[in-house]
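New to this. Comment on this protein:
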Amino acid sequence: MLEPVSVGLKFAFLAVLYLFLLWVSRSALKDLRHGAFGGPRVATTAAPDATGMYPASSLAALEGDHDVVPRLVVESVPGLGRGMSYDVAEGATLGRGDVEIQLEDPFASSQHARLTRQGTIIVIEDLGSTNGTYLNDELLRGPQPLHAGDRVRIGDSTFTYDDGT
């Protein structure tokens, strides 16, 4: 009587194990397709001239016009309303801990990413987080300048950068 039940439980365990392995491999392939971990990049929306170069006028905006305030605008963040914005003219730290922009996201580290002002440019850098920071759907590898319309993703939280112009 116990033998058929035991065999059935073994097969059920193997089925769950194979489903788990399938889920892990599918997730890894999905990350590779989106350019994470140095994999092949999928073409996304690029700058109009497709060079990654941006006009200097947007950078000079912080210098001359004191009414210009660069902001991070909430696109989708757990616990925050879409369209909310954060003033980042003086920089800010994002994460779950005691930071300027607090995220209720289980995939965010306590101090996940930092925005700093370097002259007329706002720069984003990952602070050694476990899950990484994504800029325009590409894993951030070192400090990068932000440009109007750039998308910043930390876990399930997505922001759009607005340079204020």
